[in-house]
Amino acid sequence: xxxxxxxxxxxxxxxxxxxxxxxxxxxxxxxxxxxxxxxxxxxxxxxxxxxxxxxxxxxxxxxxxxxxxxxxxxxxxxxxxxxxxxxxxxxxxxxxxxxxxxxxxxxxxxxxxxxxxxxxxxxxxxxxxxxxxxxxxxxxxxxxxxxxxxxxxxxxxxxxxxxxxxxxx
Length: 169
Hints:
The chain is of the alpha/beta class.
């Protein structure tokens, strides 16, 4: 099983860079659906991802349709949107036999409305007050992927670290 963080036409290089770092830390695949709002050579993108780019598995998709052609049953697709009825933490992500895809929309407009209307059963939301329009995209990706990993018992991730000074005791 593999977890995927899917970004639909991301616009802000720093968000994508931060999400790339999260993908590296969680051994998740980062799927980027074009067109991107920046060059992948952008210095802000590279700076946000720091030196983790070699550890990020990135898959580029030419369009939403091209991406959707790669998601086959029984794989799970979740559309993260503030307009969803179901809360992201109420979903069971524990099925270890299949891939899980967590799709996030463009920072300014989210996922395309016709796509959302056609797939309401796949939509999940992060609860928040009505005082803000939206949470930061990289924060949302981290929240959702770590909930999935928690339910998967953090499979493949280190559960603790021993610091060098601890080895001296």
